[in-house]
Each structure stands twice: as C-alpha cells, then as structure tokens.
Amino acid sequence: MDREKKVRKSLMKDFLGNINLSRRSFIKASATTGAAVAAGSGLSFELKALAASTGAKGNGMGQWLPATCQGCTSWCSKQVYIVDGRAVKVRGNPHSKVNMGAGCPRSHLALQQLYDPDRIKSPMKRTNPKKGREEDPKFVPVSWDEALDTIADKIMELRNNNETHKYMLMRGRYSYMRDVLYDRMTKIIGSPNNISHSSLCAEAEKFGPFYTEGIWSYRQYDVLNAHYVLLWGADPLAANRQVSYYSKVWGDVVDKATIAIVEPRLSASAGKADEWLPIKPGQDGALAVAISHVILAEGLWYKPFVGDFKDGNNLFIAGQTVDEEAFEELHTNGIVKYWNLELKDKTPDWASEITGIPAEQIYRVAKGFGLAAPHAISWLGGGPCMQVRGGYTAMAVHALNGIVGAVDNVGGTLKANKEYTSKFPKPDDFMDDIAKKGKKHEKIDQRGRLHIPCLKSGKPGGAVITNNSADGILNDDPYEIKVAIGYMNNFSFSAPQPERWERALSKIPFLVHITTNASEFSWFADIVLPDTHHMFEKWGYVKAIGNGYRHVTLMQPIVKNVWDYKIDETEIPWLLAEKLAERGFDNLLRHYKTYKDPETGKEPSSDKEFALYSLKYATQQLWDPAKYKGGDKFDGWEAFRKTGVWNSDPYPFRKRWGKMKTKTGKFEFYSETLKAALEKHAENHGVGVDEVMKATHYLARGERAFIPHYEEPYILGDEKEYPFIHVDHKSRLNREGRSANCTWYYDFKDLDPGDETWDDVAKINPLDAKKFGIQSGDRIKISSPTGSLFCTAKLWEGVRPGSVAKCYGQGHWAYGRLASKKFGKEARGGSSNDLIPAQYEALSGSSAYYAVTRIKIEKV
Amino acid sequence: MPRYAMVIDLQRCVGCGSCSISCRNENNVSEGIYWSHKITETSGTFPNVRFHYIPTLCNHCTNPPCVRGCPTRAMHKLDNGITMHDPKKCIGCRYCMINCPYGVIYFNWKDGHSTWKSDNAVIPGVTGSPADEVRKVGGKGTPYYNPERNATLPDIRPKGVVEKCTFCDHRVIRGKLPRCVEACPADARVFGDLDDPNSHVNQLLGKFRPFRLKEAVGTEPAVYYIRDFSAAGYPRTKGGV
C-alpha cells in the first residue's frame, strides 16, 4: 500500500512538472404489473418482451432496461443492464434530453443498495414494548397480513374515537405517485398531518427566486451559453442538481465562461474554477450586495431588462441616494429602492472585512460578472441560504440574475419547462364528516405560528417545517400524535439535532416505518414494512429539468424481487385500503378504484393493478396520442414504457419578461410579493411586520424587510469556547443519506476533495491544527452546544482557517453492518446533524444547516 | 490489427471517479483493488489552493517492463497492443508489480469478495445474510456479478495471482468501448486505434500536445493525457522583485 502511494505521489510530481512546460499558459483564453416474477424463476413474459424491444445489443448476455435514479435529486433517467433478472450495470438513458446519456459515480452504488444484504426481507414487528435508543426493539418477522391488520386496527381506533387528526404521515424520498399515500390517504382518513421532508432539503433556496420572480422551485442554468458562472455554495459536479448533465458539459463551459465559486471549502467544482472565493461562513449576503453595488456603480446592469436613467447618466454613485423618478424601469421593480435602502454603501472594501475576501477579488468578480451580462449566471445553492438569516441572502444572490438580465434568458437562469402529467382524482367526495373535521386541525409542525411563518408561494403557513414536528410531538402541541407512518425517511438521522426525534418517535404509541433498511427511524417503530428499491423494483415517475428541457422519467420493476417487498406509494396504501374496507370503512378503497386503466377503462382490483394503473393514469397525456399536448410523442403506453422517458419541448426564452408571477408581474428587487405575504402573516397574528422580523431572528426593520439585504449570520456558540464554525457539505457518492452500507462508498470516499477512503474526516486548516496541536489521523471529538461526534482529523489547505469542514453521510448507528460499527449500538464515523442545532430559516421553514453553529475540537 | 490507445482529456474530466467505480463493476474487482484509479493532489496554501486529479489505469506500454520481467509469460502483449495477464500461468512472484513504474498492478492476497461469504444477519430472521443474497439473486461472488468478464479472463481472479486493467479486452473484441470510457459522464476518455490516421485518438494527439506518465523511463504508454484538469485563468501580471 505504502509503496503504491509513494509511486503515485511521485507520479503526480512528474506529471505536474510536465504540465509546467506545457502550452497551458498560452491557452485559456415487468415489468409487468410489478407482479413480478415468482422468485427463482427466470424473467416473466412481459419482462422478456420489454427486454427484447429495447434494443438488446448483439452478443451481450443481457439487456439494457429503462429506469430512474433518485440517488440525489438530479433524478436522471437511466438504463440498467439486466442479466437473468439480475441488475448488473447502470448507465444514463440516452433518450433523455436532460442528462443526455451521461451517468455519474453515485448511480453505480444503486446496485449495492439493491442487493444490500441487510435489507428487510419481510414485515417485522417490535416485541420490546419499551422504546429508546438504548432499547433493542427485538424485531421478529410477521406476515404482510398481520402487519397490515395491526395498522388498520390502529387507524380504525382513531376513526371510531373521532381523533383522526392524531394520525400522521411522514414522507421522505418520494416519486410523483406520492399523493396516493401522502395526500389522498391522509385526507380520507381525516388528518392534516402529511409532513414532507422538503424543508430539510431546500426551501430557503426556493425563497430567493419566488420573492423576486415568482417561482417556488429549483432553476436550471443555460451554462453552454453563459460567459460567467458564479456559484454560491453550489457544487454541480458533485451534488444537486443534474450532476450528470453538468459533468457532461463542464469541459466546454470551462472554455467559454469564467467560473467563480463562493464557498468556505474547496469543493469538487472549485477544483475546476477560475476563481475560488473562500468566504467566511454565513457572510454570503455581504458579498452578494457588494457585487451588486459594483455592477450598478460601474453601469453594467443589463438595460434592456432593468431599464436606465432617463438622461442616460449613471447616478448610482457610492454613498449617494438616487431619486426614483430619475430611472425608467422596464421589466423589474424597485432597482432604485434596492440601491437606496441597501446597496449604496455596500462597497467591496466594506464587504472585504466581513467576508474575508480581498476587495480586489470582489471587484474583479463583480466586474467580470457584469461585463458578461446578460449571459451571466448567479447560481444559488443551499449553503448561503439554509442559514437562520439566509432568506434575504437567497434573494440577494438571485437578484444578481435580475440585475444582469439573466433571468429567463439565453446563458442565464431558467425555470422548469411545461410538462403534462395529471393529478390523481380529487379526494373530496370520499372524505366523510370525521375526515373533514379531523383535517381542520392545526398541523403538528406548527407552521404559520408567529415565529415560523413558512411563507411558501406567498402563503403564510404554506410551507412545511419538518424538523419542528419533533417538538410538536414531544410537547403534544397542538395535540398528541397516536398513530404515525413514515416512508423512505430517516428523520432521526437526517434532521438536525436528531436526538429530539429519538425522543419524539419513542413517544408515539404506534409507529410504522416503510423502508428498505432497518434505519435509525425504524429503531423506534412498532411495525416495519420492507420497501421496494425505487430504481429497480417500483412503479413511479419523477420530473427533472436541465439542458433547457424537462423530462418525465419512469421507474419500473425490472428485476426479480429477491424478498417480499411492496411498493411504498401504491401497493401498500391499496392493501391498507382493503384492510380498512374489511373493517367497515371503504372510502379509501372506493377512491382508489377511481384510478382506472386509461387503456381499458378497467378499475384496479389488486395492489399490483393499482400500482400500474395509477401510473398510466398520471402519465396518460404523455403517451396517449389522442391526448397529446407537446414534447416527445409516443404511440401508446408500451412505447413510452420501453423508452422510459418523455422530453419536453425546448425552453422558450424571454417569454416571462414582464409577465412574472409576482405582484407586479416584474422581477422584484423591491418585493411587493414578499411585502404582501409578510403583511398577511403579521395580520394573522395581529402584529406589525417588524414584530415578525423580530420573532424570526431577522434584524431588518421597516422597508428593508421587503428587499434583498445583508444580515449578520446567526451562529450558535461562544467563540471563546467554540473557536470554529462548522461547515457541512455533501459527498459525490452520497445517495442522500443511504450509501453508507455500500463498500464502494468507502473504497472511493477520497473522490470528495480532502476526504479519505474508509474513514470519516473533519478537514481542518493546518494553521488552526497547529494552534491546537492536532495532526492528520488524530482521533477527535467535535462538540457543538447541542451535540458531539467522533471522527478523524485531516489537515487540509482547502478549508478556511476558523472553520472545519465535514462531509454528511456517515455516522449511522443502524442501517446495516457496514453503515454502523455495531448495528444498533455504535456509529461508524460521525453525523454532522449531531452537531447542528434545530434552527430554522423561519420565513421559508427551512432547516438551517450552514453557518448555524460553532464547534470545538478535542483529541481523544 | 489495430493498436489500441486511450486519450484522457483532463479538462473534460471532472474527477468524479465514475471510471473507477464502473470498472469495479464491469470486471468484478474486489474492494481495495483499483484497476482504474487516480492521482490527486491539493496544491498550494490557503487561499491559493487547487485540487488536481489525474485518472490512471494500466498504460498498456509498448515497451512493458511488467512483461519483460515476468518469468512465466503470464503477463504478455496481445497483437492489438493490450497488455494482458493470464492468471493460470501466474506464480504470484510479483516481479511485474516491482517492475511497473506506475503502481497499477495488484496482488490478490486473499479470495475476492470475501465479505459476501458471511452467513450473519444483522437482525436474525428478518434480514438476510450476504451469502443468502448471492445465492438467492444468483450471482457469483457478488449479486451484481458481471458474467461477461469471463470471456477472456476468469471472472473472479483467484488468491495468489496479480491482476490489472485489460482495456476491457472482452468488450473490445465485441466492438464495444472499455467500460470506463462508456461510463465517463464527461466524455473525457477517447479510445481508438493508433494505426488509423483518422481515428479520434489520432485527431486529438495531433491537435494537442499530449503527455504520458513518466515518459523518461521509456515504457511508451498507450494512455495519453491532453489539456489541464484545472484550466483556470488568472489576472495578468509580471510578478515583481
């Protein structure tokens, strides 16, 4: 091993020596009704037919069948190589215009997930009535029948006692079949408590584009036509979103565009960037407003979008207020107000001290970015905005796209293309009085209270605040939860301060978990149901955007089910509906029977039929030529299924200029949309907007609450006791939090710059390490005010002094033999969430993961 | 007969490692053994730091020291330029590993995929065991085992012999690209025939100044590199004294 390392090290030296002599310095300038296949036998007839028709290539032993990967939320269309009903290899689906046949490293790990020896083979039930982290649940296998009977009995108990609101559904990774289980079943049983994971994921990132241009969603970026790409905590070559597409084209983007990246850690994308701006954690807002200041002061804003001074003279002079009347605005709202209220004093010198970035670099990046207008992208990732005071940073970063006219423009930032999937039938007619009454209760996550406005799409209390549900459950506030189901979620691992979830889940009298692996969440469950793997065993579909297109890509059962799994979002709710009907409550089953097969008009009569029909129902307008609306055209369901993906029409540029879904119809620097939402929320609570600001930890008062602006970060912990700021980041091998039981995860962990194979390291700048007497390889304990973890120290130059970077993904104490050191007892590595306090960007409901806590390090 | 070579465009390479993971998968390679690998380095001092990544694999040298030093001719050249190994002739002396200047040959100290042989379940009765899984799925060594590797080389190499990249000779003979080339999302790897003047490989070698690893040792690798991984611009300066 040592020899090998030495050889490679010296190779690197030689190689770099060669490069120095190079020309580089001159250039740059089933499946079937899921019915699956009896175990042990070969492929079913349908599988064979599907295989045969999807281009089995000459003299290979298998066939490439279409699939969808949800290892990250790129949601790529894939193909899987199937040999004798076994999945053997994975590649990008060449039919997708979003990922264009490109794959990524994490997609291959899906094979090790599929055949993870620690997957649950059959339903199981807890035999130890005591619940807690220290209590072995003593799971024993039970039949599907017994498991579903028990669950149905518990739901009927709630219905009989008129307390259906005490039922709760927690959603983790989903497909767009989600509403069957998440929405319809919860409503028809009669509960308001369908709680998604979304605010653990990104809601603050949607806040920026919504309150400037009216889209509550992720964006896509026209990188091949961009001349400047400014990334903010986004790492498109490693994580979220369209890693495959951006990996495919980045070599060309590098040629055409200047790439600058703002992030305290040298990320995978930073390794290939022209400029790295290693900002002090939490200070992104200061940099964004300073860059905006320079662009306005230098007269580089994009006039065909923003407009211009009436007399043509630039009055944006540092420190000076501008008369609003002097400027004639075109497709934007409030550029002068933005200058007067925020930008006029925000010079690079001002920002330099706050951000730790040299003023020359700020000026250089700002000028380069402005000169590239309108083909300049300000690309917002989670880092700058999933912070306690990150909402306005999200706006400031996204507002840069407005200033340079990149919104909806060639070489700019785009929304999603149109697609034509359908919603499932409405549940209203199947909701009885109990259900209607039950649904009216306040939600368990307390969204919409004064301190947690959760202003999704302009609506107070519109967004989920996932992590706060634990407190709702713990405090019986607004009431107790008696029966809960979670699917493909793991909040006691994936949510900040997970110890709260351990207590909350222990407190729920009857908890069900639908999952592939016995996870940290399953540990507290009464019944655990074995789930299918989305990529190989499930019917479903998802939508994704990239490359100026949107695709809708199918999930299909394409392998033999090795054990007795069922599909989370369709088969299991159907089977439960049958059990409820047996008990005299048939509303849910009657509702599900309205999801008829669009081809035959037949109503479903089994879980397998239901899974297939509901998918055909939802996607009919994509594959049925009689209902064609746009994009790829198929001659029927079979053709769609064999291709596995539908592509939209190309992106219609600049169609939204002047017609944005904001209060003014324009791109809002002064957000009338946010003003209305905040005023509505304030009114709901009989207070003023200033009190809302105060209750949500924001410092802005008055008009500043309606414009993008800089706020000092809100970071927990005293600097003397906790000298470092914690920097969390994601791995290019993470399949969300679910790779840790795969050997390839560890064998290739050093694909994340700074990380090591078969270890979990905290990356510390050598200057800091020296001060604290720490060396690479030291076993360390990291503590924050709310928790601690153990891992290995790694000295690394790619991290800003004063901060410590650690990758999310390890630290499981359950999930499997490899994920944990001792299953159920001891974690392998440390999970960042054990350091991160349960704090929120309250305007969006988003959990705060970044610049949220200080930490200390001790050698152990 | 073609003479195969690979050009790796470092500017297109995004350092993602899809090559290495898909190679594991294609060739049923055990944990800890990297037919496809990388050299990485973080250079500089904060804040002037960059991360560099060079994908590596067997160089299929025209002048291969591993072949010359092999006492049993287990390591040999094919007519198409591929440096091939025959584990049946291998006596495990590891001279090839010592002679290879690139560290890309690995020795099997133990049987492959041994973790899959375990009969333990983490929750007895409810979860299976690795051995169960392999049996039930019907793989060999691993459940996701690729039988196509067996065409030209034992699908799983035994203990006591060496192994290394074969340019996916079993695919190439069927007219398919090496798996690392197919799986590279960035299209950073280009494979082809050096004897065909119009091959894409030759086009690139003519357009850019290529590099090979340790040219000075005279091994004449068939793996070429073009352009830079970190192709960053920088403000114009003459420095200072």
Explain how this protein is built.
The complex is a heterodimer of chains A (860) and B (241). In chain A, 30% of the residues lie in helices and 17% in strands. Chain A has three domains: 145-201 and 420-647, 3-Layer(aba) Sandwich (Rossmann fold), CATH 3.40.50; 219-415 and 685-706, 3-Layer(aba) Sandwich (Dimethylsulfoxide Reductase, domain 2), CATH 3.40.228.10; 724-836, Barwin-like endoglucanases (Beta Barrel), CATH 2.40.40.20. Chain A starts with a helix and ends with a strand. In chain A, the strands form ten sheets. Chain A has a seven-stranded mixed beta sheet with strand order 5-4-19-18-17-6-7. A six-stranded mixed barrel of chain A has the order 24-28-25-27-26-33. Chain A is α/β, with parallel strands linked by helices. The relative contact order of chain A is 0.15. Chain B is α+β, with helices and mostly antiparallel strands. Chain B has one domain (4-226): Alpha-Beta Plaits. Chain B contains seven helices and nine strands. In chain B, strands 8-1-9 form a three-stranded mixed beta sheet. A two-stranded antiparallel sheet of chain B has the order 2-3. In chain B, strands 4-5 form a two-stranded antiparallel sheet. In chain B, a hairpin with a 2-residue loop joins strand 2 (37-45) and strand 3. Chain B is globular and about 70 Å long. Classes of the chains: A alpha/beta (860), B alpha+beta (241). At the A-B interface, helix 1, strand 3, helix 3, strand 5 and helix 8 of A face helix 1, strand 2, strand 3, helix 4 and helix 6 of B.
What topology emerges from the helices and strands here?
The complex is a heterodimer of chains A (860) and B (241).
Chain A: H1 2-20, H2 45-53, E1 63-68, E2 77-83, E3 86-92, H3 105-114, E4 124-126, E5 139-141, H4 144-160, E6 167-171, H5 178-189, E7 194-195, H6 198-201, H7 203-213, E8 220-221, E9 228-232, H8 243-256, E10 258-262, E11 275-277, H9 284-297, H10 303-306, E12 307-309, E13 327-329, E14 332-333, H11 335-341, H12 348-355, H13 359-371, E15 376-380, H14 391-403, E16 413-414, H15 433-439, H16 469-474, E17 483-487, H17 491-494, H18 499-507, E18 510-515, E19 527-530, E20 540-546, E21 549-555, H19 571-582, H20 587-592, H21 607-623, H22 637-643, E22 645-647, E23 667-668, H23 672-684, H24 689-695, E24 724-729, H25 743-747, E25 761-764, H26 766-771, E26 779-784, E27 787-795, E28 803-807, E29 820-822, E30 826-827, E31 840-841, E32 846-847, E33 854-859
Parallel strand pairs in A: 6-7, 6-17, 9-10, 9-15, 10-11, 14-23, 17-18, 18-19, 24-28, 25-27
Antiparallel strand pairs in A: 1-2, 2-3, 4-5, 4-19, 8-16, 12-13, 20-21, 21-22, 24-33, 25-28, 26-27, 26-33, 29-30, 31-32
Helix pairs in contact in A: 4-19, 7-14, 9-12, 9-13, 9-14, 12-13, 19-21
Chain B: E1 4-9, H1 18-26, E2 37-45, E3 48-56, H2 65-68, E4 75-77, E5 83-85, H3 95-99, E6 106-107, H4 130-137, E7 162-163, H5 169-172, H6 179-183, E8 189-193, H7 200-207, E9 223-226
Parallel strand pairs in B: 1-9
Antiparallel strand pairs in B: 1-8, 2-3, 4-5, 6-7
